[in-house]
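Recap from last week: sequence in, structure out.
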Amino acid sequence: MGDIPGHTQNKEDAEQVRTTKICRNCDLSGINLTNDDLISAVLPGTDLSRARLGHAILISAYLPNADLSGATLRKAYLPSAYLIDANLTEANLSKAYLSDANLTGANLTGANLSKADLTRVNLTGADLTNAILDSALICNTIMPDGTIDTSGCK
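Predicted structure tokens:
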């Protein structure tokens, strides 16, 4: 684990999230949490913009109103994550596992969701403008307009 060289995030916030998995409205912008265990992390309103969370385990993580714009969540494991009203603009969620996640009202403008598992994800009111959904698994997924898409179910 390491921080982006030259980045001036709040070091106390970074240590707090690593030790307690709880940090409300913290500045973790640019933090490297690649491969970290963040099961049931409580991070409402936290700034995780440009954070590196590839392969991170975020089962049942609580991230309402979090800023994950430009974050790397490639192959992150986010089942049952709570991302209501989160900002995921330009985030890389390719191959992420998001089954049963709640992304109601999330901003996914320009996000890369290629090959992501969106089974039973709630996207009600989410903004998917210019989002990349190539080969994403969409099965019993609640779409932004409230309809349920079963197109990828086998």
